[in-house]
Every structure is written in structure tokens, then in C-alpha cells.
Amino acid sequence: MKKLAVSLIALSLAAACGKDDSSVGLDQGKLATFRKALPSESMLAAKKPQGSAQNAIGDPAMYPIEAGPIAIHINLAVVGMVNLMRAITDLEPTLYNSDTQEFLWGPWDNDNGFGTVAAYIKQQPEGADFRYVYALLRGVGNDLQTMKPVIWGGSNPDTTNPDFGNGITLWDFEANYEFAQANDPDFATQPYDRGRFVAIYAQGADENEPTATATWVYAVFRNFIGKDDYVASADPFVEGADLDYLYGRYLDTTGWNIDFLHFAFAMDAETSTPALEDVSVKMAFLNSGWGRAEASANGGDLVAPEAYNVTECWDAALDRTFLNQVATDSEGNPYTAAEGVETSCGPDVNGTPLFANTLSALGLPDLNDVDLGLKAALENAAENGLQ
Ligand SMILES: [Ca+2]
Predict the structure, then answer these.
(1) How confident is the model at residue 239 (pLDDT cuts 50, 70, 90)?
(2) What rounded mean pLDDT belongs to the chain?
(3) Residue 120 confidence (pLDDT)
(4) For residue 179, with 0-12 CB atoms within 10 Å meaning exposed, 13-18 middle and 19 or more buried, which class applies?
(5) DSSP readout, 310-338?
(6) 20 CA → ligand 1 middle, Å
(7) How many angstroms does the Cα of residue 303 sit away from the middle of ligand 1?
(8) From ligand 1's centre to the CA of 270, what distance in Å?
(9) Fewest 10 Å CB contacts: which of 217, 250, 344, 352?
(10) How far is the CA of 299 from the centre of ligand 1 (A)?
């Protein structure tokens, strides 16, 4: 999955080389407004614990390290998508269609590959779910009607703050794969990403505390296979990976911010047979440092009540302060191995250790709080693409 972010970039740069320059007279103010329909990286990219202090005492905590690659994978997907759309729409558009209220880029020949490329940002009528919709299209000619979206999104940008707004975005690797299968003369020797990534996001002032900023991203990968990863592996990103992901950040005006993440995916955590277990990893961290993780594995080879549960806390240097591992056997007996004490799960806030509380007790949302209708809609888009 490492090359996810660049899998379509060559295409965009080739398109840039092929642009014509017949766009004189476009309304630059309107164009700038439309370009704001694209999400910013800050809206979509997950933060991970950084370790704000140097401390040679104690073992590095596991979960902040493990969160890194997953956050990086998600960020590669969203940042790759954002950068690709921006690379094209930063060019002068080919035309503005006042009937459809749409800026169009292309279609341009994909000089570096095959077929043609186009993009649009279109304003929607009042009352639509999204003020703007946008897409990156691939085709084999200049007839837009026959071109297929490989990126699609809708958004409601905030007119007063470029980093605020909400929207949905779909990266349809599968449509790109199918297009290549039908049209790439070198398809047999070219690896392509498979599957789809869909995310909804919102960033804005907190409704209860207008000076604070709240960020939400809920994303799903379905049937994802990175083009560099066509090998069997327990890595959840390798073999037709399904991943659900919730990320949030709350930033208040005094400079305190809390990030929370929840990933759920299937992987071979109990390796006695290759059946995949359901793995859940939740974590939260304060000001990029102090934090708590709660992980579990069940299902697959683990027949209830068999389960693994792990709690870990770390300090500002990301050194572990507490680790509790609980294996529950088939009779429901817990076997516990602990290091440290939970009351060391700081920092101290108003005289109590903040992360001695469970993430649920702290009121931090997780994937189970996602509206079921919304979850079903995103899963449908990720499994089937645009209908
Ligand atoms: Ca297993």
C-alpha cells in the first residue's frame, strides 16, 4: 500500500502537459470559490502521537507505534486523493458551463499512458445535500458522457474558513482497475490498486463551545489490495482488506487538544489456524503525547467467551506507564498480565489521572457510535461504487 498515494499521480502530471489554454476570460473569483469545494489535507489526515518530551526511562509503548502505520495508510489515501484533485484543478479550467454551473478540466490525452482524463467541480442547486460535487474522470475519447469517475466527492465548504466544512469523498480504485483492464495495452504487466476507499468528514466550530474546533472523519476501505501487495500475508492492508476507521480531534482555545482513533479490521491475531479474528483498536491522546489504548480480539479462532483484551497507557514521551493484557479462556476465566498500575495513566487533570478512565468513560466516541444508516450507506458505496 506504500505507493497508494502516487498510483494515479503520473496520470495527472501527464494530463497537465496536455492541457490547452483556451480559458481566457474565466471568472477567477468564482473559480477560487469552486476550488474550495475540495477538502483540505487538515480536514482528512489523522494525527498520531508524536512524543513531545525526551525520556530515556521506560519501554516505548506499543500502540502509539502501531497506530502510526495505520494512520499513515489512511493519510496516504486521503492526501493522495486531495493532491491528485488539486494537481488537476489548480490548472486553468478548459471551460465554465453556466447552464450546469460547472468548471471543467479536459478531457486531455493522458500522454503518459492511455485514454483521456477530465475533472469537474459543479455547484448544486439550493437544497442539495452537497453545495458542490467534483470528480476525476477517465475515458478513451472526448465524450464526457462515456467517461468514468475514479474519484468522486461532494462537499459543503465553510465560506468563512477554508479549513471548515463537511463532505464525502470516494476513491474508486476498482473503477480505475476496470478501466485499465479494458483499455491499458500493458495491463498484463501493470499492477493496479483494487477496492475502494470512502470517507465522510466534518471540521468546524464545536456547537457547544464555538471557540473550540472539532474534526471528524469516518472512513471505510473495502476489498482493498495495494498494487504492491499481491502476496498472502496477515497484514490487514494486504489481502482484500476491509477496514473501518473513525478519527476525531478536539482542539480548545487554551491549546489543549485530544485526538481519538478507532480502527476495526479482521486479521489473524490468534494464529493457531488462519481464521481471521475481529480486531479493534481504540486510542486517545492528549496534546500528541499522554494517551491510552484499548485493543481487543475476538471471533475467528476465538470462540466466545474466549477473547484478548489489552489496555496500555503512555506518557508524554510515549513511554509505557501501564500495560494490562487479559486472555479469557473458553470457560470465561481471565488470565491477566499487568505492568504498572492504572492510576499512573496520567496526566493529572484537576487532581485525577485522566487516562485512568476508560475511553468510553471519558465520553470519546467510537465506531459503535456511528449512525447505522450512515455506516450502511458508506459500506455500500465502498463495496459497489457509485450506483
Ligand atoms: Ca486465527
Answers:
(1) low
(2) 84
(3) 96
(4) buried
(5) EEEEE-TT-BEEEEEEEEE-TTS-EEEEE
(6) 55
(7) 11
(8) 4
(9) 352
(10) 9
- Find, among 263, 311, 313, the residue nearest to 285 by Cα: 313
Q: What angle do CA 78, 80, 83 make, to 5 degrees?
A: 105
Torsion angles phi and psi, residue 321, rounded to 5? -115, -15
pLDDT tens digit sequence for 27-79: 999 999 999 999 888 788 777 777 655 544 567 888 777 666 666 667 777 77
> What protein residues have CB closer than 5 angstroms to ion ligand 1?
268, 270, 275, 300-301
pLDDT of residue 16: 44
Residues 321, 289: contact at Cβ < 8 Å?
A: no
**Cell of residue 58, nine digits:** 521506560
Non-local (6+) Cβ contacts of 356 within 8 A are: 313, 342, 343, 344, 345
pLDDT at 51: 67
The predicted model gives 74-88 an average pLDDT of 81
What confidence tens digit (pLDDT) does each residue in 258-297 have?
999 998 988 888 888 888 889 999 999 998 889 999 999 9
| Cβ neighbours, 10 Å, residue 296 | 19
pLDDT at residue 162 is higher than 90: no
Query: Contact 322/342 with Cβ under 8 angstroms?
Result: yes
Q: Look up residue 7 and give its DSSP letter.
A: T
Question: Which residue(s) pair with 352 in the sheet?
Answer: 349
Q: 309 alpha carbon to ligand 1 midpoint, in Å?
A: 16
What's the 232 CA to ligand 1 centre distance in angstroms? 14
Å from CA of 217 to ligand 1 middle: 30
**Cα 336 to ligand 1 centroid, rounded to whole Å:** 21
Would you put residue 171 in left (φ > 0), alpha (ψ -120 to 50) or beta?
Answer: beta
Give the mean model confidence (pLDDT) for residues 227-239. Answer: 51
Centre of ligand 1 to C-alpha 265, Å, is: 13
- Read off the pTM: 0.86
Q: Tens of pLDDT along 102-152? A: 999 999 988 778 899 999 999 999 999 999 999 999 999 999 999 999 999
Whole-angstrom Cα distance, residue 256 to residue 286?
Answer: 7
Distance 80 CA to ligand 1 centre (A): 33
- Separation of CA 1 and ligand 1 centre (Å): 23
| 338 CA → ligand 1 middle, Å | 24
Q: Which three cell numbers stand for residue 332?
A: 470465561
